[in-house]
Amino acid sequence: MALSGALLFWPKALKKHVRPIYLQYPEALYDKVFHYHAAGHGHFGRCIDLRCGRANATMRLGRRFKEVVGIDPEWKRFHLYWDNKMAQESRSGRVRFLNLGDLSAFEDETADMITAAQAAHAFSYPDVWSEIGRVLRPGGTAAFWSYPTLLLPDSNQYKSLNHKLLDFILGPTPERLGMYWDPNARRLLWSHYTELPRPPEEIFDISTFQLHHYHGNHFPSPWAPTPIHSEPVLQTMHGVDLAEWEQWLRMSEAGRKMRRANATQQHLRRRDAIGTFMEGLGLEVAAIKSQREVSLQMPLNLLLVRKRTGGRKQDQPTYAPSEGAVEEVQSTVGKATEERGEAATTTS
């Protein structure tokens, strides 16, 4: 939904219909994950997507694996945000979802790959590594990827605006989002996973460990000074409306916490901190481009590692999803399609 105009802010009735940016991870990222997996274990049978959220990554994984299981403790809430395309894709029966917060329901050595998109900084370590190692088949892949935030293009033209953006996102004062970050999640995410606890070598083949940073020249920066070897950015999104970007900031964990802390300003979006900041940023962008649509980049981190080989179970289960799993997905799709419109009109 692209909305244009002289201002970022509309009457309350229209605000309800402004959706956040619809993010898709770049195909180049999946190509790197699949290439890494194919060079090792190589079987594209079952993949489990941890903390799958709105299932963007889960659905894409379903095009390559015979079976994908997305798990999330808040799945019943997230599935309301499906669009028609996602609902249609899920009817293939290759993808199913469980309202779970961990891997305890899965048997040993029953997954070829376990993924986490924008979630690994919220896990409990080292427990999660042990559980991943238990459920992965020997030689299977663990793949985590994340992005710290969205930024304007990596160029001198936008350098000062990106600095202001990071100051707003990370600054530790009440009128900035930095005050509302979970401290541990912030440390792990903004260290670009360099401080993420490493997988135990008694379970994983450490010689296969890789950590990539597709940040271009965005980082290191004064706000995120961790030294990294950065590779080119994989994705630039064009034609993003500033209103959608503003809503994306509001829907972030820190944005929701800020909103709850300032509940009296909920009906005065133009005057709250996010609205005030984005209005000023929009004016500066318009001074550069003479329009209120922007291009945004997603600096990505990618962590890959394989489970040690040996001790492979000979009697491996088949990959066809059960009849009950297909019925579960179809039931979820029906509810998502019916409830999606209602969710859109109640999201502020």
UniProtKB/TrEMBL annotation:
<comment type="similarity">
    <text>Belongs to the methyltransferase superfamily.</text>
</comment>
<dbReference type="GO" id="GO:0008757">
    <property type="term" value="F:S-adenosylmethionine-dependent methyltransferase activity"/>
</dbReference>
<keyword id="KW-0808">Transferase</keyword>
<feature type="domain" description="Methyltransferase type 11">
    <location>
        <begin position="49"/>
        <end position="144"/>
    </location>
</feature>
<protein>
    <recommendedName>
        <fullName>Methyltransferase type 11 domain-containing protein</fullName>
    </recommendedName>
</protein>
<feature type="region of interest" description="Disordered">
    <location>
        <begin position="309"/>
        <end position="348"/>
    </location>
</feature>
<keyword id="KW-0489">Methyltransferase</keyword>
<dbReference type="Pfam" id="PF08241">
    <property type="entry name" value="Methyltransf_11"/>
</dbReference>
<dbReference type="InterPro" id="IPR013216">
    <property type="entry name" value="Methyltransf_11"/>
</dbReference>
<dbReference type="InterPro" id="IPR051052">
    <property type="entry name" value="Diverse_substrate_MTase"/>
</dbReference>
<dbReference type="GO" id="GO:0032259">
    <property type="term" value="P:methylation"/>
</dbReference>
<dbReference type="InterPro" id="IPR029063">
    <property type="entry name" value="SAM-dependent_MTases_sf"/>
</dbReference>
